[in-house]
Specification:
Blueprint: H1 14-34, H2 41-48, H3 52-58, H4 62-84, H5 91-106, H6 110-122, H7 134-152, H8 161-181, H9 187-202
Helix pairs in contact: 1-2, 1-4, 1-6, 4-5, 4-6, 5-7, 5-9, 6-8, 7-8, 8-9
């Protein structure tokens, strides 16, 4: 995923990175609480305990802040999955590890997940196209490739890999959406149920 370069004057300094992280965290909290439309620079500044001038010094616009909230989470999640999944494992093991790692990553980041969903659902590029529209498509294509490999190796039964990839992606997102909206739910048990269901659905 390509991202535009930030215009921060001191993004490379330790202090500058710390301040940007502080602002992004405040933005995530505001997004989670009031939603995308109401997430103003003023509210973000108030939550971060800084002036609007500090915000505009580190970020070119509110759009840049909100985009960074989502992109930071994408990058951290991708790194967590990569460290949790072995390329040498079987397709079935990689499928389970990949899905499990993603849900595990978000299990301690409810606020950030809610914020990410707000940005993904509402953020638009200059052409008024959803800025993160390709994320679900990319995930489904990666899943389809893994499912196809599992079929080739005899681990998975015959099915349309593209359709099943979208079904798995929808199931995973559905679990996360339910958990994010109800703090009484335990993502760990939901994850175990989902993984068991998917494994039974695809295995040969």
């Amino acid at each position: 995923m390509r991202t535009k370069q930030t215009s921060s004057k001191d993004q490379g300094t330790i202090g500058g990175r710390a301040r940007r992280t502080q602002i992004e965290r405040a933005a995530a909290e505001v997004l989670s609480e009031v939603g995308y439309a109401a997430a103003s620079v003023g509210r973000i500044a108030e939550r971060a305990g800084v002036s609007k001038g500090v915000i505009t010094y580190h970020f070119a616009s509110k759009d840049e802040i909100l985009r960074r909230v989502a992109l930071t989470l994408f990058e951290e999640c991708a790194a967590h999955i990569a460290s949790s999944v072995s390329d040498e494992a079987s397709p079935a093991a990689r499928l389970r590890a990949q899905l499990s790692a993603e849900l595990e990553f978000f299990s301690s980041r409810r606020v950030e997940f809610r914020a990410m969903v707000e940005v993904m659902s509402n953020h638009r590029d200059p052409g008024f196209i959803r800025a993160f529209e390709n994320v679900s498509t990319d995930e489904a294509e990666t899943l389809a490739g893994l499912l196809r490999q599992g079929q080739t190796q005899g681990e998975f039964r015959a099915f349309d890999v593209n359709e099943v990839a979208h079904l798995i992606d929808a199931a995973k997102n559905g679990v996360l959406d339910r958990w994010a909206s109800d703090e009484a739910l335990d993502l760990g048990s939901m994850r175990a149920t989902m993984l068991d269901f998917i494994e039974h659905a695809v295995r040969a």
